């Protein structure tokens, strides 16, 4: 396609990961295994929570939503990465690139909001145990999930529409394994000031506000535990909150390390590896972090899969 003497780009080249050719097969197998683990682990959690009536509580309903979001989040980037590792020309059409960016933002933000909802749920459960069922009603739970979807849809749509305005000229090589918003902005030959301003404003809100809310929730949880020291309450609170906190630190740790503390020589290799952490590793680990040492989940596993044996 040409427009005047300016070439309009209809596809992009995704450079992928900086892996030496002799290790391509090894990494392909590794990523495939990681992706399959993510899909199966999260599917198992969703199915368990739907099937077992003991897990029909706000906490597990939110966890099921988080698993769904994780499943979609890694499916936005991983299948394309695996396909590109096998093909000679790792390309992606322009529309596909925008779609990937849209869904990446959508499920990434959704994950962020769901982590806030889960932190709030734990805060109410530990600080107001007697009012928990009246505060965390199914209505509020649905409300939180719907609000998360509305906000993330709006945010992802805003950035995708702003990106669609830009034109891309000669350079169509993306030094990344997916259509990352900042990588696309660097390629554009239009004025990207508006985009950068919007990213700065909304990005601050989308990253910093959830993080602060989560930290405040857990700080209140810890202070309320310390006020009434009892070994049992202590252990119970830390077994649920400890797992949530490890997910949160993994997710925000890499994001904040990447975007808020850029080092002097912010190499693309380092950026790609860190992007790999939150796009692939976090969604894969979530099901294990939540089910590990979780008696309810283990109980549900036994109840759902050994039902026949128990009935006999
Ligand atoms: C997400 O949460 C809502 C509200 O609690 C619930 O009705 C719904 O089933 C959940 N979705 C999934 C996929 O778990």
TrEMBL record:
Signal peptide: none annotated. One of its GO terms (molecular function) is olfactory receptor activity. It is a multi-pass membrane protein. Coiled coil: none annotated. Keywords: Cell membrane, G-protein coupled receptor, Membrane, Olfaction, Receptor, Sensory transduction, Transducer, Transmembrane, Transmembrane helix. Residues 41-290 form the G-protein coupled receptors family 1 profile domain. One of its GO terms (cellular component) is plasma membrane. Belongs to the G-protein coupled receptor 1 family. This is Olfactory receptor. It comes from Mesocricetus auratus (Golden hamster).
């Amino acid at each position: 396609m040409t427009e005047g003497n300016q070439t309009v780009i209809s596809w992009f080249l995704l450079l992928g990961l900086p892996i030496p050719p002799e290790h391509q097969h090894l990494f392909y197998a590794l990523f495939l295994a990681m992706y399959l683990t993510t899909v199966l682990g999260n599917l198992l959690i969703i199915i368990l929570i739907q099937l077992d009536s003991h897990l029909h509580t706000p906490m597990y309903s939110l966890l099921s939503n988080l698993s769904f979001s994780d499943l979609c989040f890694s499916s936005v980037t991983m299948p394309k990465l695996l396909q590109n590792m096998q093909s000679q020309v790792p390309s992606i059409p322009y529309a596909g690139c925008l779609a990937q960016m849209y869904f990446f933002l959508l499920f990434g933000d959704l994950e962020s909001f769901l982590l806030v909802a889960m932190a709030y749920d734990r805060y109410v459960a530990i600080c107001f145990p007697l009012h928990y069922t009246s505060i965390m009603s199914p209505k509020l739970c649905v409300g939180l999930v719907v609000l998360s979807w509305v906000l993330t849809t709006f945010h992802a749509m805003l950035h995708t529409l702003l990106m669609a305005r830009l034109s891309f000229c000669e350079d169509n090589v993306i030094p990344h394994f997916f259509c990352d918003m900042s990588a696309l902005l660097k390629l554009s030959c239009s004025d990207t000031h508006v985009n950068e301003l919007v990213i700065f404003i909304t990005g601050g809100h989308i990253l910093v506000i959830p993080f602060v809310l989560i930290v405040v929730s857990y700080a209140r949880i810890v202070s309320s535990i310390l006020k009434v020291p009892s070994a049992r309450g202590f252990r119970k609170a830390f077994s649920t909150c400890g797992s949530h906190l490890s997910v949160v630190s993994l997710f925000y740790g890499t994001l904040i390390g990447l975007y808020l503390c850029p080092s002097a020589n912010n190499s693309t290799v380092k950026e790609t590896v860190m992007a790999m952490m939150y796009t692939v590793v976090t969604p894969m680990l979530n099901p294990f972090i939540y089910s590990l040492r979780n008696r309810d989940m283990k109980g549900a596993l036994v109840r759902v899969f050994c039902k026949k044996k128990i009935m006999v």
